[in-house]
Each structure stands twice: as C-alpha cells, then as structure tokens.
Amino acid sequence: MQQLVEDFLVYLRHERGQAEHTQRTYAGLLGKFTAWAEAQKLADWRDVELKHLMAFLQHERERPLADEPKESPRRLSSESVYLEIAALRAFYRFAVNEHLLPSNAAEHLSLPRRWKRLPKSLTNPEIERLLEPEQPETPASLCDQAVVELAYASGLRLAELRGLRLEQLHLDAGFVNVIGKGNKERVVPVGRKAVDALNRYLDGGRPKLVSPRSTAAVFLTKRGGPFASCTLWGRIKRRVRRAGIERNVTPHMLRHSFATHLLEHGADLRVIQELLGHANISTTEVYTHVTGNRLRDIHREFHPRP
After folding, report:
1. Residue 148, Cβ neighbours under 10 Å: how many?
2. Which whole-number Å values give the CA distances from 274 to 41, 46, 180, 248, 278, in the listed order?
3. Exposed, middle or buried: residue 158 (CB in 10 Å: 0-12, 13-18, 19+)?
4. How far, in Å, CA of 63 to CA of 73, rounded?
5. What is the pLDDT confidence band of residue 96, given thresholds at 50, 70 and 90?
6. Is residue 278 annotated as part of the catalytic site, yes or no?
C-alpha cells in the first residue's frame, strides 16, 4: 500500500509541482491510513471499500490526541478531519486516473463544511516595533532584518522566503521574482525600506555567512546553509519576542498583515490576489471581512452617534 502512496507523492512533486510542505502533509495523512489499514489486515488498496474509509475516519475522530494526556477529552478537530478526507480523495483521484486502481472508494466521502477563519494580522504599532533595526548589527541580525522587511513588504510565504535565490532579486528595479505554489511564478514589488534592508544584508551580512557549502539562497544560516522552514520561523519568532510583542505570531501573520494593511489603505482586491499568488479570488476575499471589521471599529470610534 505504501508504494502506491509513494507514486502519488512523486506525482505531486514532479507533475503538480506541489510545495514541500504540502507533500509532507499528504505523506503524513496517508501514512496514518496505511498504518490503520495494516492493523485491520488490509494489505492492498483494492481491498479498501468505503466502509473502511468511514471506519478509519470514525477512529480518527474518537482517538485521543498524541500530545495530550490519556484522560484528556480533546479530540481531533474538524479541520484535521477535513484534511484527512481531502488527502484520501486526492489520492484516489490520482490512482483511478492513472489506472492504478479500478474504482474510487473515496468518491462518496463528503467534505465537512469548513468555518472560515478570519486571518489575524499585526497592528501598525506592532509592525513598527518588529521592523525597528536591532543593534549592534551582526550578519545574523542583518539577515533577520531583511527577512522581516521583505515578508511584510511583499507578503511572501515562509517557503517562498527560504527558497528565494539571488537571481530572483531585482532590487535596482524594486521587485523580486517569486516561485510560489505549483511552481507558479509571479512578480512582486519591494518597497524602499525592504530594498535598503536587503542591500545592507547582501553587502555587509551575507558575505560573512557564506561557506563552501553555501548555495545561491538569499538567506543563510550562521553555518552558511539555506534555512529549513522550522529554523527560519524560529528566528522570526525570537525577533518577535525581542520586539516585545506578546501575541502568538504565526508564520502567515506577516503575510496577512501585508494583505490587510494594503486593503485598509485602498488597494484593489484583484491586485492583492496577484501579489499574494492566490489562484482563486475567493481565497483573497477573506480579507474583505477583516477590513469590514476595521471599518466598523472606526465608525464606532469617530461617528458622533455610534
């Protein structure tokens, strides 16, 4: 069963061009099912029927969480169940389309309704504190400064930041070429302050980080290698704490702040969609709810008869 999963992951990687994070997510979700199926004496995907998929999902809903005490009442969230169903459906579509399986056992698995979570963003004062240059300047602090400036100025995903290469920078012209999800390329403008931070890092920081193992990645660790996702996010988290920001800042929060603040200052939603690299405008439309809340708060604060 695992071999067919591996074929699916190769398809995601080479034909769909899915991000490394997406591939790992699918691998983990499908790995849960194959482990469960093995315990049920199911040795072949052809033996799996809809009733088995339903039993697996019920098992997932009821099992205690791995990182919780056994007596904890917490169970798998509906969001996690949604992802497991989506992974099974995607796998079966691939297997049937490639004639690796005779029928789609997941065809009638329905996806639960997802609640739209409004993206959280940093406030303007929090952004100002986060982007305040740190002293003394070191190669690592110059790297951190360039990362947070570029993240807020251009709304790049964490994977796009860590994967950014020197040849993608066009700082004299004020833009970067970004390779996003599905290997889709987009051009994103970079503001003056972010350009200045990148130039200071490229001139005075990066040369001191370069080692024989260095690649053309823009952002380098203290050992001269490219960042892993968790390492880069750890650096940003520490920067957030040093800036005195008490909230739990997630990897996407700078990207959300970029989009929310653009919309609040009058940017067109279609332009924001292009800058973020969203394939569908419906993904970008969530920011209109955030802006609506902001407009309501302003109205309540300043209208003479709120």
Report:
1. 22
2. 48, 42, 11, 28, 7
3. buried
4. 10
5. very high
6. yes
Buried/exposed code over 88-103 (b: 16+ C-beta within 10 A; e: otherwise):
bbbbbebbbeeeebee
- Give, as one character, the DSSP assignment of residue 46: G
Q: Which amino acid is at 163?
A: G
Question: Does 252 qualify as catalytic in the annotation?
Answer: yes
Q: How many CB atoms lie within 10 A of CB 216?
A: 10
Instruction: Select which of 16, 52, 59, 278 is catalytic.
Output: 278
169-192 pLDDT tens trace: 999 999 999 888 777 888 888 989
Q: How far apart are CA 123 and CA 184, in angstroms?
A: 30
Tell me if residue 287 is catalytic.
yes
Q: Out of 152, 157, 239, 256, pick the active-site residue.
A: 157
**13, 186, 242, 252: which one is catalytic?**
252
Structure tokens at 297: 């708060």
For residue 24, what pLDDT is reported? 87
CA distances from 77 to 83, 119, 251 (A): 10, 18, 20
Region for 165 from its dihedrals, namely left if φ exceeds 0, alpha if ψ lies in -120 to 50, beta otherwise: beta
Task: Read off the tokens for 207.
Answer: 């040369």
Q: Are the C-beta atoms of 27 and 9 separated by less than 8 Å?
A: yes
Can 157 be counted among the known catalytic residues?
A: yes
CB 11 within 8 A of CB 94: yes
Q: Which of 13, 120, 181, 237 is catalytic?
A: 181
Phi/psi at 267 (nearest 5 deg)? Answer: -70, 150
What the block records as the tokens of 198 is 């990148």
Catalytic option among 235, 255, 256, 261: 255
